[in-house]
Structures are given as structure tokens and as C-alpha cells.
Amino acid sequence: MWQTPPHLIERFTALFDAHHMNIAELVSRTQPAENERAAQLHIQITAHSPASADAANIEQAFKALCTELNAQGSINVVNYSQHDEQDGVK
User: Fold this and answer.
1) Could you read off the pLDDT of 52-80 as tens digits, one per residue?
2) Which SUPFAM superfamilies match (predicted)?
């Protein structure tokens, strides 16, 4: 059985850390290799971002990383305000 190469998921979590975002949900699965087609990672991430941050930047970086790693991915960015953060809501 094919397994996700070491540190593949860590590449995604490091990307969000570099953009100062919190990962609220991460779901991944591997599509096994079939005939001549290589195995492929499918990843879905929901991230929390400060309201002042531009979600387009992380979305572009996420898509670029998916392309680099031959992964299929989807991202959902939820912005939160400083007021929510002060109230303990992230």
C-alpha cells in the first residue's frame, strides 16, 4: 500500500504557519497508484485568518504547493476579527 511520503503534510502546515494562520480542519487521503497513474494526495484545509489578512495570498500559495507536490486540494479561509480573538473566539 502506498503511503504519503514523509513530511508531505508538514509542507502544508508549514505554509499556513508562514502566513500566520491557524488550521481549523485538515482532511487528507491518498488515492492509490493505478496502472500508469501515480498515487495522489487529496487534501482539504480550513484555516482561520486575521480579518486584516488577504486570503488570496494563501490561496495562491496553497494552489502552487498542490501543483508542486502533484496533490489535489481545496482551501477554505475564515477571517476573524481582533474583537473575536479578544473574546476567545478564533
Assistant:
1) 778 889 999 999 999 999 999 999 999 87
2) ACT-like
* 27-33 LR contacts (CB < 8 Å, sep 24+): 28/4, 30/2, 30/3, 30/4, 32/1, 32/2, 33/2
In order of their start, the domains of the chain are: 8-86 (3.30.70)
Phi first, then psi: give them for residue 29, nearest 5 degrees.
Answer: -150, 160
